[in-house]
Amino acid sequence: MMNRPMKSVGRRRFLQGAGGSLLALPLLEVNAADSDATPPKRLTATGIFFGLMPQYFHPEKVGRDYEATRLLEPLASHREDFTVFSGLDHNLGGGHNSTKYLLSGIPVTQSKGYAEANISVDQKAAQFVGAETRYPSLVLGCENGAENTISWTRHGNAVQTINEAEHLYRMLFRKENAQSRAQIEQELRDKQSILDLVREQSKSFERGLGKSDKEKLDQYYTSVRELEGRIEQSEQWLSREKPPTDFQLPLGVDELPLKDKTPFFYDLMVLALQTDSTRVITLGFTELGKEGGGLEGVSTGYHSLSHHGQVQEVMDELAIVETFHTAQFSRFLDKLKEVKEPNGQSLLDNTMALFGSGMSNANSHSLRDLPVLMAGGGFKHGEHKHYARDGKSSLSLCNLYLSLLQHFGLEIDQFNNSSGTLTGMELA
Amino acid sequence: MMNRLSPLKSVALLAGLVMMTVNALAEKNLVVLDKGVHQFIKTYCVKCHGPEEDKGDYVLDEFFMLQGDQWMVDVGDIENIYVLQDVLDQLNLGEMPPDKKDVKQPKSEEAKATTQWLTETLIALEEGDRSNYTVLRRLNRTEYRNTLGDLLGMDGLTKDLTANFPADDVYHGFTNIGEALNLSDAHLDAYLEAADEYLRMAFHFGETPNPRTFEILPQEWGYPESSSVTPWMYRIATPDQYLDIGAGFKQLSDKFDLGTYPRLLANRGGIGEAGYYRISITAEAIRRLTHPYDPEMIPTNLKPPMQLGLYISDGRKGLAPAGVKSRKRIGLWDLKDHETKDFEVTVWLDEGAIPVINWDNGPGPSDYWMRDILAKHHTDIEFRGKQGSHAWHIIGKDAVPGRMVSDVWQGPMVRVHDFAYTGPTRKTYHSSAQREFAGGVFDIEELDLELAVKRFTRKAFRRPVGPRDYEPFIQLAERAQKEPGRSREEAFYLALKAVLVSPDFLYLKEKGDENRKLTSWELANRLSYFLWSSMPDPQLFDLAQKDELVKPDVLRKQVFRMLEDPRSEALVEGFSTSWLRLDKLGAMPADALKFQEYYLYGLEEAMKTETLQFVKNAIKSNAPLTDFLDSDYTFVNQDLARHYGIDDVDGIHFRHVSLAEGSPRGGLLGQASILTLSANGIDTSPVVRGIWVLENILGTPPPPPPPDVEPLDPDVRGATTIRERLAKHSEIESCADCHAKIDPFGFPLEFYDPVGGYRETYFRSRRWSRPEQKTIYHPGRPVDGVAALRSGEEFTNPAELKQVLLDRKETFARGLTEKLMTYASGRPMTYRDHSELEAIAERALQPERGFRNLIMNVATSEAFTSR
């Protein structure tokens, strides 16, 4: 009796060395007002922690003339702007624990065998963007518990989420005065000189270490190198002005219940993309927060509702929460569509906006057939695409991610457990 | 006996060392398969695990290759090693071939020869591949925090400076396994930031700051002077005199409104300048026993003194409902009745910190109980309440227009007269760093920078140091202070920060590849991180310096001393969390309506405390290991006692209680912490609890379910019971084998609800009644705890389950020993450790021996004292 590894072991690639470095790309001058330039590709992902009731999410009919389901109803006006997928998942078990792997498909406990651990699709895209934007990615959480970690680095660490809209606003728009800029510059230089020193010190530390110890110490060297790269990047961006905005965030946004707070998160996301402060954003939701999120008709906790036991009244209450999320996503698409890029396209045309959950049916903790939809990005939409199971496994959701990453500009032919690109994805 | 090998070893070997194994082995690495073993597998295994029926996804004949006339296994493919491993485990456990009438059974010599070959082959693979030493171990978050505290001599921090560290890598519950712990640029950056904060708190140079006293006047808390709309917590200010607080909580929880905080200060952004502050409060208890109301109507126990709690919130974060982790209690005092008393505490306050006060053992929010009292005693008022979107409005039958609650209320109150904070005072008030490293000077020009850096490096590196170690840091500081605009003080911090991110500080270094005895210095470190999760103290350094620690009697004395030291709380918490998975407690929120008492009384914290007290007691009193399986005592406070239905426990402190005959408590499995973390907060599952027992009590974790099997979809509408639903498992063959082992350990635990309350029936509805101080529920069908193991043992309730586990106390002791050794040495156990673990476990079960002996024997074992 033992913990038998999953069947996927054979598919793991034990590549030596690290993959694409975080900062492999040179700095480029970005001028958002340059109308000749092709707008950059963006990627966003919204992750819901407690699943989305499959019977209310997935349409029955496949193809263009599918009937809008209860959860898709709020997205009706965008029917031609998104594709809803069924049949895709990560072939995982593990209940709540695995919903964190929506964007990666690999549990952190199994990530050691992969060259880039359990890197999530957003962080993979962020690596590609590198220093071209002020923030390679923004990882956000709105009413976010400790469990909500959908973004993972190539070292197998969950990225810490930004949970306050006010903080996000400051990151995007607050201008540093000369004094604080000088102080930050000094701090960055200090870090740089410390790193120079400890890299030298490590060489004497390494003496006498065993073989496995040396391999561990390699991580230290890599970390020093990568942090130095990040510091350089910060220095470059420090001297550039943040974009101007006339958007004012009202005071006390972060004290608002979920219902009133969520739109501000999405609005700031649109602004961040529009100003090219970043091209990659994730937004996670785990809790309802105070007052049932301020959602009328919700009488108990989100987790409790998700264990609905097939009782209709409870499912109806859960549907209030879930349709709230699809409605907010629909509103996000409205906003993306309203923003015009310098070349006349809409921001949505250049933004691949994912929405979904790492769990399908929370009542059974099922991780099969994940509820996922994707809008915008220049793909042909308006369809319900279904991918049939092959024997004991589902088609990997990573195939979709591979398609998106390629469209984003990455020249890769595999992403985590993908078996290829997703068939049927066409550009508009 | 081979068949007593613990399966955890194989798990350790496999899960932990996958990368090692693969890195070290060539692409193709063929091992000649013993002819007898080949024959054995062909004869007894392939019928089911072969091309015809690939049970458990195993096609055993496919992984042999014929080369010439020899059968080979490619051990360069990790999956084949897993297969060998699994075959060995199944044979050792006697699980395979299954005991069925049409399955051919091997003779015992045949089985023995096969297991012997497999064992030897796997050990050889393991040894050829890597030594079973502890891989270079990074300090984890707890260790970092404790080490910085000891290094700088700081305590009483109100803020966790490691809160932004990436989460530590968890290996089967352990967060201190060298092999598993990773380091990334995010870690380094977080270390740099934290080191900066620590150093600025520990040192202070320059003029003694000129502390000022700031007062928060009663009206500045931001509560009304008279209330037409009653705040959820009923707070009324009498300007320039006092603030009354008429409601409160035992523990500030994340589900309800919070304590009382000064709105004015909060709106100004909290404390203006970081530093140590003295906070003084003058307060009293009003009408605790002299209020005119029916005491039954006030849902708290007013017999003990009323208590005032003082908290510090990290900016506004700790004021938000979910901000539990961003506030910390720094004071708790009993109030005198109608007699003011002064309370004082000196703490570090960050810029932006906001103090919060609370009636810590008060009744809950003032909404309904206050309403009931008003309806009975004060029918002459109009009453309006409001909290967010919830609002209520009552007009008393004799209402006098304009008369409000605050005009008539005569309930008990916490009355705060004065609240002041003075500071910042000299920042090193609570740190010994200034004295120890800087020679006690406060004038930076007088600082012997070279000496200070040297001393600091020595202590931080936890070993003897030479000029090569510290000179680069001194040079760094000297270069920096020559830069224009850099102060000497900044240059000094720069050097110390560099020390704190150097590998000598961040890692526990043990040299070499060979399996040798640890040196006294290495042992001092290993020992202090085992027992204290922190750096060695001067006494350990001294013994290391004299090279005495390697002497067994000296080592034993140190273990005794260290276990007596309060720092050994770190072992209690660290090991209990890893072993029992207490980290999972509260990970999934309990239903706030059904289990309101869970939030109302802070039961989660109380549950955890019970288990920690239990483990702590086991060390202190050297309790027999079997106490973990069943005991006639436990540790409760009044809230947990109420939860357990134990009478006559007053007060929020924990105490030892003897359990009545037939009590469903006692042992780990009687503890609400374990029963809650093995449920999901909403309902219970014999499967989840059964797995917990197998993993943590018996040390034999079952394999995960095949990934293609869909979990059960609970349907609570029909008449199906959990047993009927689980019966599906026995119908599906791929499920049946494992569930026959798992489920029986879970069924008797169905007598405990999702938060560990005892129940004899399921409930159709359930709620906590505050006036009655008990759970009101509509019973459903009776709990059915009947379970039977394949061995034929049958049991029906928790008590009988405990007996079954006591009958397996050897298995339990082996599992516990293995977990403790893993925690102690920071590495997974392997086949090579097997005999020593076995011997230690056996000794620990002898009469008069107990848990402290086990810790001692682990600390003095070969495995622990060797590389």
Which features does this protein show?
heterodimer; A: 428 residues; alpha/beta; 7-stranded mixed sheet; two-stranded parallel ribbon; 10 helices; globular; disordered N terminus; B: 867 residues; alpha+beta; 6-stranded antiparallel sheet; 3-stranded antiparallel sheet; 30 helices; 23 strands
Structure overview:
- The complex is a heterodimer of chains A (428) and B (867).
- Chain A is built from 10 helices and 9 strands.
- With 428 residues, chain A is α/β, with parallel strands linked by helices.
- In chain A, the strands form 2 sheets. Chain A has a 7-stranded mixed sheet with strand order 4-5-1-6-7-2-8, sandwiched between helices. Chain A has a two-stranded parallel sheet with strand order 3-9.
- In chain A, helix 4 packs parallel to helix 7 and helix 5 (178-206) packs antiparallel against helix 6.
- The longest helix of chain A has 29 residues, at 178-206.
- Chain A is globular.
- Mean pLDDT of chain A is 87; it is low at 1-33.
- With 867 residues, chain B is α+β, with helices and mostly antiparallel strands.
- Chain B is built from 30 helices and 23 strands.
- The relative contact order of chain B is 0.09.
- Chain B is 39% helix and 15% strand.
- In chain B, helix 27 crosses helix 29.
- Chain B starts with 6 loop residues before the first helix and ends with a helix.
- In chain B, the strands form 8 sheets. In chain B, strands 5, 7, 8, 9, 12 and 16 form a 6-stranded antiparallel sheet that branches.
- At the A-B interface, helix 5 and helix 6 of A face helix 1, helix 3, helix 6, helix 12 and helix 13 of B.
